TrEMBL record:
Gene: add1
Pathway in which this enzyme or protein is active: Quinol/quinone metabolism; menaquinone biosynthesis
GO molecular function term, any single one: deaminase activity
Name assigned to this protein: Aminodeoxyfutalosine deaminase
Protein's UniProt keywords contain Hydrolase: yes
Family assignment from sequence similarity: Belongs to the metallo-dependent hydrolases superfamily. Adenosine and AMP deaminases family.
Catalysed conversion reaction: 6-amino-6-deoxyfutalosine + H2O + H(+) = futalosine + NH4(+)
Organism: Streptomyces davaonensis (strain DSM 101723 / JCM 4913 / KCC S-0913 / 768)
GO biological process: menaquinone biosynthetic process
Ranges of residues in domain Adenosine deaminase: 31-354
Annotated InterPro entries: A_deaminase_dom, Ado/ade_deaminase, Metal_Hydrolase
Length: 362
């Protein structure tokens, strides 16, 4: 698939509705998989303002338009501070259920057939939401979303690393306790700031999660160098890497990722919004593809970064000079790198192929 992406033709200018090479309509209907998107970070401006109005003690604006300014970040630390102010708005299992269901609706509107949603249960349980109520809320929403929208949701529980080992212990407990572990849980992650939060200290928690059958998908190399990605591979058994942006600085690492089919969950607009990368044109996604790394494109925290998955595909089309077939190959890569079972993967890939063939038919 990566070869196909690299070999694809030109994308044209994707904004002009008169432009025959405008890829937006194709992308909008393309069946897709989303592998790196955060639960709270997906709250739409409508949901955030609704929750902010419910909780007037919060400093989050109630006016959706004011959220554009509120969601403009000076750096990664500022992003996390704002992110946590939105986390503070989610106070009951019903808030959790509503948020999850609405996130699924937004994904379904973009023809996302399968999504692995990163959830930070520690942030909710430490704020007083009962663990049982939390799990029931996400599972209710998952089942409703699948029945009503046809979008399959799976969960990645992540440790908010900066909150310390207490958060790691609680996250692994929630992920592995048979009485609590939700049916939709497939993977275990690590998020938040990387500076001052060395990955190796989380090894015992990842070992326990992996032993319980979960797949390992830590964030690494988003705001620190390639050594963090090596640490995630060596100590945390990473099977995919969240972001992995700085991998581009280490040719041996790129070779290792390519040879071992360790996919990168690339989130281009996120990297600009948090100022991890200066400009889209400087984004290393092209280097990843050139090195043969399995690249998936994702939205991370879409409303906070003024994006969505369709826009990320349009960004990738521009940066990688993809045409429709190249975009279909990119959609295949996400399915290949997902933790869906083989029949599920084959079904979505057949849908992608049928859609693309019909679109390109004379
Ligand atoms: O919940 C708390 O009380 C808490 C205390 C201290 C630190 C934290 C965090 O660091 C939470 C980080 C939070 O950020 C999520 N997230 C969303 N997008 C990204 C991203 O691009 N890179 C890293 N983390 C991200 C992550 O899932 C955590 O939930 C919390
Ligand atoms: Zn992320």
């Amino acid at each position: 698939m990566t070869d196909h992406i690299a070999a694809a033709g030109s994308a044209g200018t994707p904004k002009d509705p008169q432009d025959p090479h405008d890829l937006h309509p194709f992308i909008a209907g393309l069946p897709k998989a989303e592998l790196h998107v955060h639960h709270v970070g997906s709250a739409s401006p409508r949901i955030v303002s609704e929750l902010a109005a419910r909780h007037p003690d919060s400093r989050v604006p109630t006016d959706p338009e004011a959220l554009v300014d509120y969601f403009t970040f000076t750096d990664f630390a500022h992003f996390i501070e704002v992110y946590l102010s939105v986390v503070d708005l989610i106070r009951t299992p019903e808030d959790v259920r509503l948020l999850t269901y609405e996130v699924a609706r937004d994904l379904a509107r973009q023809q996302v057939r399968y999504a692995e949603l990163t959830i930070t249960p520690f942030s909710s349980t430490r704020r007083g939401i009962d663990a049982r109520g939390f799990m029931d809320a996400i599972e209710d929403a998952r089942k409703a979303a699948e029945a009503e929208f046809g979008t399959v949701l799976r969960w990645c529980f992540d440790i908010p690393g900066e909150a310390g080992l207490e958060s790691a212990e609680e996250t692994v407990r929630l992920a592995t306790d048979d009485r609590l572990r939700p049916e939709g849980l497939v993977s275990f992650g690590l998020g938040g700031p990387e500076i001052g939060v060395p990955r190796p200290q989380f090894k015992p928690y990842f070992d326990r999660a992996i032993a319980a059958g979960l797949r390992s998908v830590p964030h690494a190399g988003e705001t620190t160098g390639p050594e963090t990605v090596w640490d995630a591979l060596t100590h945390l058994g990473a099977e995919r890497i969240g972001h992995g942006t700085s991998s581009a600085q280490d040719p041996k690492l790129l070779e290792h990722l390519a040879e071992n089919r360790i996919a990168l969950e690339v989130c281009p607009t996120s990297n600009i919004a948090t100022r991890a990368v200066r400009t889209l044109d400087e984004h290393p996604i092209r280097e990843f593809v050139r090195a043969g790394v399995l690249v998936t494109v994702n939205s991370d925290d879409p409303p906070m970064f003024g994006t969505d998955l369709n826009n990320e595909y349009a960004v990738a089309a521009r940066l990688l000079e993809l045409d429709e077939r190249g975009l279909a190959a990119l959609a295949h890569s996400a399915v290949d790198a997902s933790f869906l079972d083989e029949p599920g993967k084959a079904r979505i890939k057949a849908e992608i192929d049928a859609y693309t063939a019909a679109w390109l038919a004379p």
